[in-house]
Amino acid sequence: MAVEQIKVKDIDDGMRLNRWFLKYYPNLTLGRLQKLLRTKQIKVDGKRAEAGLKLTAGQIIRIPPLKEGETEPQKDKELSKKEIDFIRQLVLFKDDNIIAINKPSGLAVQGGTNTHFHVDGLLDGLKYEKEERPKLVHRLDKDTSGLLLLARNRHYAEVLTKAFSSHRLPKTYLAFTKGVPHQEYGEVNAPLKKNGEKMIISVEGQNSRTLYRVLDKIGEHFALLEVSPLSGRTHQIRVHLESIGCPIVGDERYYGLIRQKNELFSDKLHLHAYKIDLSAIYNKQMQITAPLPEYFKTDLRTAGLEFNIL
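Below the sequence we write its predicted structure tokens.
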């Protein structure tokens, strides 16, 4: 096998290098990976890399010649009826090319260290009448609930990936926040940069823009916001809302759930991918929406916020 130069896909943006290898080279052992990294045989954008490096879409990974068997794909385990029933009850929409599911908070989209139950591992349960398993074309944070699109064939995987990259598929989120924006409508325009496990606002970061609209509020205490990211950075909505004094309820990473614990509400992240506009692909008005989780609706009622329009 010759040296390969592989470009990081948009779907893998933010993924750690070791998890990337676990996904695409599952038979490459951790010890062997560490040796290849230590001897500089694996590089990212021509530079030495560590196993924990977080990748950015568009980066180039150098793959050295590997031993026989190390490039073989991992055999998928057969799903149980319970697993198939679980993933199928999440389906909101299905046609010949696309499946949309309503991902619950706490379910990871892809696997990794100590993450063995995830959407990617359940996709065989969504083949239905087709031989080809659906493909992930974008991601949601593990703690974010809501709409996740899957492509049912290679052609639509390319179509959707390009459409997401060019921001032709507007996405709308709902966020329950502690704090209320000063304006009913607004935009947060603040560049974001990775800093360890978190994203931070930095002049050295990538351009990031988020629109928001206040749907309802209780004084200056709580608000229900409609949020539309105009760029697709990791944790973008969470960081941007926190930066204007409106952290999302249940956001332990950026709000500090331990410090700000409020026993009135669920400790789950109250950020929901509510709607995706697919009109650009279907060449007609086409939108898919995902109902709010029960804990989200219950907590809005507790706070006294209206959500009937949803």
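Residues 171-303 form a domain with the Pseudouridine synthase fold (CATH 3.30.2350.10).
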